[in-house]
Amino acid sequence: MNTPVKQHLIDPEICIRCYTCEMTCPIEAITHDDMNVVVDADKCNFCMDCIPVCPTGSIDEWRVVNTPYSLEEQFSWSELPPQEDLGPGEAETGMEALDEAMAALLAEAHSGAGGKAVAPKSAAKPAINLYTLGKPAVAKVQGNYRLTDDPEHDVRHIILDLGGLPFPVLEGQSVGVIPPGEDENGQPHLPRLYSVSSPRDGERANYNNISLTVKREPGGLCSNYICDLEKGAELHLTGPFGATFLLPDDAEARLLMICTGTGSAPMRAFTMRRQRAVGGKSGGMLMFFGARNPESLPYFGPLKKVPETLLRQELVYSRVDGEPKEYVQDRMMAREEAVAEMLTDPATHIYICGLKGMEEGVEHALTNIAESIGQPWASLRDVMRSEGRYHVETY
Ligand code: NAP
């Protein structure tokens, strides 16, 4: 009989196909096909380098198995298989394979904002992975509008028409854009991920279109491709992806949204959904939104028209002449009472989206604010995460 072994797996339902784990793995144990990103059990040495870089926690899945799942089996999954029943004795032996060093590494990865994400209880069930590398959706550019006045900071609002193709997408989900051409190895480029910034019923209500918020990155292959697209051009999409960074359908839920730059894309989708669907009945939203200056803050103009009763806005700037540099975490501290009050409310959901670097500062602010009301933040965060009320998506 085989000795049970611990196998590292990726949850295909939650994975957003950003391929960061595959690019991070030092021994090329992670690979993908048109459908899934998977871990090769023959190669994985449990180094854990892939765990903290995953923006969704989908990478953090483990099963104790008598025979490891093959790559082919994993490629065919649309959801993870349950833990096999190995019998008490064998399962214990297998669990011992999770030695103390690995447990410590996992604890380390989970001590930050990462960890396995859970969808809000009332969220609608998302469709995922309908379009793949092998069978992408072809969308047509309906509009490409510049959102920022800062010449050094070109952020675009891209509207894509899906025509007659079914493309159900919920607020908070992402799509992949496949840049044309091949990489240096003659392989087609991998899709780049963008959060959808429009609500589920379309950028224009009841039209089958979506919007993306894309910043031109110097030398960026995909961002320059998208930002240069003209009206009528076609592009290839994969997805939709993401099954946890979703809006609660419960109108009474309160949202605490913290974002930087183009990380505002899902917050725009949440706000538009609530404007259209719940209006005055909304439990309320408080948004801390950081940008270099008003000229580089995407959607600055339209945001001004959103009523305070629906969305309280704290716009925070880091590079305004004559003003001290301010980050979202600084403003959260300055609004400590409002944030603390939300932390005590079980109806509150937290969303953090944007630069990877902001996580540490935001965690620090939340730790201080939670402490001021006698709550250890790490425990509160873990409860919120397990209840589907704490969500992070940073790159
Ligand atoms: P950005 O303009 O470079 O930065 C936005 C603001 O964040 C600036 O004020 C910046 O300040 C500040 N900032 C820098 N470091 C920070 C830190 N450690 N803590 C708090 N604030 C900090 O932003 P961006 O270029 O738009 O980038 C946004 C990020 O969001 C990208 O990495 C993108 O991949 C990610 N994202 C995008 C989407 C999407 O759909 N487009 C979705 C999810 C995530 P200074 O630079 O002045 O110091």
Can you put this structure into words, describing what you see?
This protein has three domains: 5-110, Alpha-Beta Plaits (2-Layer Sandwich); 137-241, Elongation Factor Tu (Ef-tu), domain 3 (Beta Barrel); 254-394, Rossmann fold. Helix content is 25%, strand content 23%. The chain has helices at residues 20-24, 71-76, 88-96, 100-111, 221-227, 265-277, 300-304, 328-334, 336-343, 358-372, 377-386; strands at residues 5-9, 30-32, 37-39, 61-65, 137-146, 155-161, 174-178, 192-195, 209-215, 234-241, 254-260, 285-291, 311-317, 348-354, 390-394. Helix 9 packs across helix 10. Mean pLDDT is 91; it is low at 91-99 and 105-112.
* Alpha carbon gyration radius: 21 Å
Amount of beta strand: 15-25%
Mean pLDDT: 91
Bound molecules: NADP nicotinamide-adenine-dinucleotide phosphate
What is shown here, in short?
The protein is an alpha/beta fold and 395 residues long.
List the keywords.
single chain, about 400 residues, alpha/beta, Alpha-Beta Plaits, Elongation Factor Tu (Ef-tu), domain 3, Rossmann fold, six-stranded antiparallel β-sheet, five-stranded parallel β-sheet, 11 helices, about 25% helix, globular, binds NADP nicotinamide-adenine-dinucleotide phosphate
What does the secondary structure layout of this molecule look like, with pairings?
Blueprint: E1 5-9, H1 20-24, E2 30-32, E3 37-39, E4 61-65, H2 71-76, H3 88-96, H4 100-111, E5 137-146, E6 155-161, E7 174-178, E8 192-195, E9 209-215, H5 221-227, E10 234-241, E11 254-260, H6 265-277, E12 285-291, H7 300-304, E13 311-317, H8 328-334, H9 336-343, E14 348-354, H10 358-372, H11 377-386, E15 390-394
Parallel strand pairs: 11-12, 11-14, 12-13, 14-15
Antiparallel strand pairs: 1-4, 2-3, 5-6, 5-10, 6-9, 7-8, 7-10
Helix pairs in contact: 8-10, 9-10
Bound molecules: NADP nicotinamide-adenine-dinucleotide phosphate (NAP).
InterPro entries: 4Fe4S_Fe-S-bd (IPR017896), 4Fe4S_Fe_S_CS (IPR017900), Benzoyl_CoA_Oase_BoxA (IPR017634), FAD-bd_FR_type (IPR017927), Flavoprot_Pyr_Nucl_cyt_Rdtase (IPR001709), FNR (IPR015701), FNR_nucleotide-bd (IPR039261), OxRdtase_FAD/NAD-bd (IPR001433)
Domain 4Fe-4S ferredoxin-type: 6-35, 37-64
Protein name: Benzoyl-CoA 2,3-epoxidase subunit BoxA
